[in-house]
C-alpha cells in the first residue's frame, strides 16, 4: 500500500504520523536519538550534519515546547532556521498554505516543520512539495503529533528499557489528543504488551479498543500495577458542548494525586506532554514529585527531533 511517508526504498521521506511506520524506523529514530543525547553535554553543542540546509518552522497554532525544541535541534545540527511568524505573514492577505510553502521552497527550504489546527494539513503539504523537500508534522488537529509520541516512547525506553514487559496507562482527554493517538501507535508498534486508556466515556473516541488498548473508566482500577502513567491535558479549546460536569469533579475522578499514584508500581514514572493544567489533570505535588519525568521529556525532545531531521536529510 502507498505510504506517503516512505520513499521507494522504504526510507523515511516525511514524518506525518506514527501510524503506518514500520517498527525498524521507530527503532532507527530512537537509536539515533541516543547518539545525539550526549551533544548537549559538550562544550560546543553542535554537529555539522545539516550544515547548508534550511529548516522552516511554520506554526499556525501556539507552541512552547515543540517549536522551541525543533529550533534548538536544527541549530545543534548546524542548519539555518527560519521561524515564520504566521500572524504577520501574508496568510492574512489570503495566501494559501501551499503557495506559502512553495515560496519558502523557492528560498531553498529543505525541511518544513508544520503545526496546524486542521487534521491532514502536513499530509497536504507533503503531497505537494518538491521531491527533495521533507515535511514533519508538529501536530495536526486531533490527528497526530508524531515527534511527541516518539519523544514519549524515548523517555519510557530511557527509564524502563524492557519495553516488552511494561504496563502503560494514558489518562484523560484521549478524544481530543493527537499525542495519545501517536503514543498508542508508537507503544503498540514497539511491542508494549499492555496499553491502558483511562477516561470518562465522553472523552474517549468511539471504538478506541480497536487500537489495541484496554479501556478503564475507573482511574483507581486502571492505575493498578502500571509502570508508566501518562497524563493528558484536558483540551478545552477543542471541546464542543459540555463533556464534563466541572474541572473540580474531573480532578476528583481523573486527576493524578499522590494517593492515586500509590496504586501504580512503586517505581512508576509520571509523564505529561505539557502544557499542564495543574489541579485539573495533575496535582502539583505529583507533577513536581520524585516520580515525575515531565521535564526530562522536554529535554529528550531535542535529541529525538535531531534524530528525525538528520534521518530525513540523510535519506534525501
Ligand atoms: N507538547 C506540546 O506539543 O507542547 P507545545 O504545545 O508547547 O508545543
Could you give the topology of this structure?
Layout: H1 23-36, E1 54-59, H2 65-76, E2 80-84, H3 97-106, E3 111-116, H4 121-128, E4 134-140, H5 146-159, E5 167-171, H6 178-189, E6 194-198, E7 214-216, H7 219-222, E8 228-231, H8 247-254, H9 258-261, E9 269-271, H10 284-287, H11 294-315
This protein binds phosphoric acid mono(formamide)ester (CP).
Residues 63-66, 139, 148, 273-275 line the site of phosphoric acid mono(formamide)ester.
Mean pLDDT, to the nearest integer, reads 95
Number of discrete domains: 2
**CATH class type of the largest domain:** Alpha Beta
Distance between the termini: 22 Å
Secondary-structure element order, N to C: HEHEHEHEHEHEEHEHHEHH
Q: Return Rg in Å.
A: 19 Å
DSSP strand count = 9
Secondary-structure class: alpha/beta
- The CATH superfamily of the largest domain is known as Aspartate/ornithine carbamoyltransferase
Shape: globular
Identify the bound ligands: phosphoric acid mono(formamide)ester
**Largest β-sheet summary:** 5 strands, parallel
Query: What is the name of the CATH architecture of the largest domain?
Result: 3-Layer(aba) Sandwich
Helix content: 25-40%
Number of helices: 11
Main sheet strand line-up: 7-6-5-8-9
Amino acid at each position: 500500500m502507498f505510504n506517503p511517508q516512505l520513499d521507494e526504498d522504504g526510507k523515511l521521506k516525511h514524518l506525518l504520523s506514527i501510524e503506518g511506520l514500520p517498527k525498524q524506523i521507530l527503532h532507527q529514530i530512537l537509536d539515533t536519538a541516543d547518539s545525539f543525547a550526549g551533544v548537549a553535554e559538550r562544550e560546543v553543542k553542535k554537529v555539522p550534519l545539516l550544515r547548508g540546509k534550511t529548516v522552516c518552522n511554520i506554526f499556525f497554532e501556539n507552541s512552547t515546547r515543540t517549536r522551541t525544541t525543533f529550533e534548538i535541534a536544527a541549530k545543534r545540527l548546524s542548519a539555518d532556521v527560519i521561524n515564520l511568524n504566521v500572524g504577520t505573514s501574508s496568510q492574512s492577505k489570503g495566501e494559501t498554505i501551499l503557495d506559502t510553502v512553495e515560496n519558502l521552497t523557492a528560498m531553498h527550504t529543505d525541511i518544513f516543520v508544520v503545526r496546524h489546527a486542521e487534521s491532514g494539513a502536513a499530509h497536504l503539504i507533503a503531497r505537494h512539495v518538491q521531491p527533495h523537500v521533507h515535511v514533519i508534522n508538529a501536530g495536526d488537529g486531533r490527528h497526530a503529533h508524531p515527534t511527541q509520541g516518539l519523544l514519549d516512547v524515548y523517555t519510557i525506553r530511557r527509564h524502563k528499557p524492557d519495553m516488552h514487559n511494561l504496563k502503560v496507562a494514558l489518562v484523560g482527554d484521549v478524544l481530543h489528543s493527537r499525542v495519545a493517538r501517536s503514543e498508542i501507535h508508537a507503544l503498540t508498534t514497539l511491542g508494549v504488551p499492555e496499553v491502558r486508556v483511562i477516561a470518562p466515556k465522553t472523552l474517549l473516541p468511539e471504538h478506541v479498543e480497536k487500537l489495541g488498548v484496554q479501556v478503564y473508566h475507573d482511574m483507581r482500577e486502571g492505575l493498578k500495577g502500571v509502570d508508566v502513567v501518562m497524563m493528558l491535558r484536558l483540551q478545552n479549546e477543542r471541546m464542543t458542548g459540555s463533556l464534563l460536569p466541572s474541572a473540580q469533579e474531573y480532578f476528583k475522578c481523573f486527576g493524578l494525586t499522590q494517593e492515586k499514584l500509590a496504586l501504580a508500581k512503586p517505581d512508576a514514572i509520571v509523564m505529561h506532554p505539557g502544557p499542564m493544567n495543574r489541579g485539573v489533570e495533575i496535582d502539583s505535588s505529583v507533577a513536581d514529585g520524585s516520580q515525575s519525568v515531565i521535564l526530562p521529556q522536554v529535554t529528550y525532545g531535542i535529541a529525538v527531533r535531531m534524530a528525525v531531521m538528520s534521518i530525513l536529510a540523510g535519506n534525501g
